[in-house]
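Hi P.,

Sorry for the delay on this. The queue was packed all week, but I finally got your sequence through. Input first:
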Amino acid sequence: MENRREIAKVYRKVGLKDQPGDFAYWQSKSYEERLAALEEIRQEYHGWENPAEPRLQRVYTIVKR
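Then the structure:
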């Protein structure tokens, strides 16, 4: 026979006023972890896929003399 393991479903009900805030969570992290998270969010926001730094696009203006 197989020994089946089951995961116990555990939850905790907390009122809205008793929930810990985001500020407390981030204050519990070291500054290296906070900076790493910020950098990850920044890269996701800009949609960078490669580690190379993107550059500004060139804009050409034709001027008649």
